[in-house]
Amino acid sequence: MAKYNASRKGSMAFYPRVRAKKQTPSMKASGNEAKALSFICYKAGMTQVVGKNTHKGSPTFGQTVYMPATIVECPPIKVLGIRAYIKAEIGFEVLNDVLSEKFDKELDRKIPNFKKPVSKKVKKEEEKKFSIQDFQQQMEQIEYFTLLVNTQPNSIELKKKPDIVEINIGGKKEEQLNYAKDVLGKEINIEEVFKEKDFLDIRAVTKGKGFQGVIKRFGIKQQRPKAKKRRIVGSISPWNPSTVMFTVARAGQMGYHNRTEYNKRILKISDEIKDVNGKSGYTRYGTIKGKYIIIAGSIPGVSKRCISIRKSQRPEKKSGLKLDTVERILVK
Predict the structure, then answer these.
(1) How far apart are CA 115 and CA 6, in angstroms?
(2) Extended beta strands in 151-275, E state
(3) Cα–Cα distance measured from residue 65 to residue 61, given in angstroms and rounded to the nearest whole number
(4) 276-310, pLDDT tens digit by residue?
(5) In this predicted model, what pLDDT tens digit does every residue of 163-212 receive, in sequence order?
(6) Domain 77-188: which topology?
(7) Rounded Cα–Cα distance for residues 193 and 36 (Å)
(8) Total-model pTM
(9) Where are the chain's structural domains?
């Protein structure tokens, strides 16, 4: 009988496999156009879409095909503030923030005592705080600007507590500041950032599976039936040197990691909720109540989880299936 031989399970690129520090992901992005470069949405669930395959190299070219797709609900995000960065000894550091006068009441759930009435002494100190004019005066020192935004999940009846994220702006720093001034205190919609047929990079925290052993976590071979223990690694290290390498499969946390998937295509952006809502809605999510996007394939995370999307930063790869238009969405 042939000797058992298999490649190692579990990529070394994902070490250390620790729990994510926070459930709200953030992404860095770059671009030439002065606008928000990423967006925050909520995953609803998966379905199937029907359309004609327009990929000429595929065996099913010109035929009607079924493709798995993910429904992501995208309520408008609100700009909470502007942040400026300057050069530091290593990398960049925050110079200061300018917050909007208009803000959501629900922010008190996320940030305790946010914009509460304060004493006269504190008010005088607040008057001396940074303003947009101070940013303009220190433009030589500033390297780039970002937006502080909060989601509005209460508008789609998902939850009350918003998520707060930092978003990059494209263009030169003068253009970034002008754009940030225009949108400060206002809402940004998904159509202002992305269009249909755009390719995305998606970052989210994966489904958590708790503390797991080496068989489930790395898929290693079990020991023979007569062994004292079967679901363990046979040898974890030599006597000399007496150390356990980090490459050895060990039990530990599985899932609830930050993961990024590249080049996911937007099939549709719409607010026609009748097309995607069935009788029963989506498992552990419910029905879609606002604007949504349909993304080809699967994405990380569970339903109701906050995900971050940006325009793809890598070259787009050709896939076997390519749908230019969605003819029908299969809903239960």
Answers:
(1) 59
(2) 164-168, 187-188, 199-205, 211-212, 252-253, 258-270
(3) 9
(4) 998 889 999 999 999 999 999 999 999 999 999 99
(5) 999 999 999 999 999 999 999 999 999 999 999 999 999 999 999 999 99
(6) Ribosomal Protein L3; Chain: B; domain 2, (3.30.1430)
(7) 6
(8) 0.89
(9) 77-188
